[in-house]
Amino acid sequence: MNNKESNAADFKNDKAYKPAHFNSNNNLPIDHVDGALQELVHENANANGGGAGGLRRVKHKRRRVSRGLIIALVAMLSIGAIGYAAIALWVHSLDQSISLNEADVEKLKDALVASDSDESKAFYMLVLGSDARDEGLTSRSDVTMLVRIDPRQYTIDLISIPRDTMVNIDGSTQKINAAYASGGAAGAVRVVSQFAGVDVSHYAEVHFDDLKNIVDTLGGIWVNVPESFSAGNGGLDFKAGEQKLNGEQALAFARERYNVQGGDFGRAQAQRLIVEAIIKQVLASSPAEIPGLINQLAAAVTTDFSVSQIAKMALNYIGKDVTIYSAACPSYTLNIDGVSYVGTMFDEWRAMMQRVDAGLDPADETAEIPEKQLNDESLGMATNSAAPRDYKTLAENAMTTDDVAEVAN
């Protein structure tokens, strides 16, 4: 039996749908209740010296009150059952909307590592996305973001991995955004997991075109635009500084890579700023606003999370002092045989992932890394990278992730 049939069966079997036999106080049939009332009234009448006439009058009054209460309770329970069924159907439809296709789900089971049974422990999630205007996530992802969520410390890390990062995929040198094209969601999870040296527990695909509706539903988002630039591939001009963006402006800002410092590194920074602003605005919402936001989210995201898990996670963070860290895998541009790639700065990436895993600010190079992370031989090792291991000179003469415009505090 599928979920929809199960809900319908539960709905029909609810006791609220048997008003002729349900009593909210003791679950006795109504005729049993009346009998009990007759006995009670008869005893009271005898105790007070009342006759048969008195018994009939008191009995009639008690019965009317009892039936009135029962009818009211049945009506309330019926409305509650209908509301519950409606909510269940709504959640079920949203689950279907955000769910990955069955083939991806089956393959992801082998790629994702179940998070700890203790729901308060931190876990990693891979977010892939495309900001293409007319294309879905059908070939190569424009956005590759590793997200760490720590429900206990109320921290969220957004770590961009440049889409042209040079890696080995199935024995050949590829860009990391080709992992999805060759292996689907599961292939992307495996490649990023090995590159970062962490287990990935959840996965999501974000359709940036649809994020503008979420932004508009939120009434806009506040973003500190790091630099002024004229319209390029994003289509709109921007002035530097803190400003409120509507959905169209947010999408244009997240798309721009031609007229911003750092090129694609600058675009990745803008994408993190937009995601961070959306998270902050959602967490500033009241619990009553969450269902409407989830409706919009369902149109923009597909994930292995269920709607109830998303809502629970959001409610856990609402009203808390949440810290959102943002950084990019330390990288540089390089050209090999006429092909543009992004190389990894291995020492810097390893140190960054150690800080991320320890719950520290990934960009704080002065932070003291705990021994546990220092001794973890997997964190940030990028064992599947195809970039040159001797990278110092190459990075000095190339554009790097440090060349983006600085976001003012």
Topology, element by element:
Layout: H1 3-13, H2 30-47, H3 52-98, H4 102-111, E1 123-130, E2 143-150, E3 155-160, E4 166-169, E5 172-175, H5 179-196, E6 202-207, H6 208-217, E7 221-225, E8 241-245, H7 247-255, H8 264-283, H9 290-300, E9 301-303, H10 307-317, E10 323-328, E11 331-336, E12 339-344, H11 346-357, H12 371-374, H13 392-396
Parallel strand pairs: 1-6, 3-10
Antiparallel strand pairs: 1-2, 2-3, 4-5, 6-9, 7-8, 11-12
Helix pairs in contact: 1-3, 2-3, 3-9, 4-5, 6-7, 6-9, 7-8
Structure write-up:
This protein has helices at 3-13, 30-47, 52-98, 102-111, 179-196, 208-217, 247-255, 264-283, 290-300, 307-317, 346-357, 371-374, 392-396; strands spanning 123-130, 143-150, 155-160, 166-169, 172-175, 202-207, 221-225, 241-245, 301-303, 323-328, 331-336, 339-344. 45% of the residues lie in helices and 16% in strands. By secondary structure, the protein is an alpha+beta fold. Mean pLDDT is 80; it is low at 1-63 and 133-137. The protein has 13 helices and twelve strands. It folds into two domains: 3-98, no CATH class; 102-403, Aminopeptidase (3-Layer(aba) Sandwich), CATH 3.40.630.190. A six-stranded mixed beta sheet has the order 9-6-1-2-3-10, sandwiched between helices. Strand 4 (166-169) and strand 5 form a beta hairpin. Helix 3 (52-98) runs parallel beside helix 9, helix 6 (208-217) packs antiparallel against helix 9 and helix 7 packs antiparallel against helix 8.
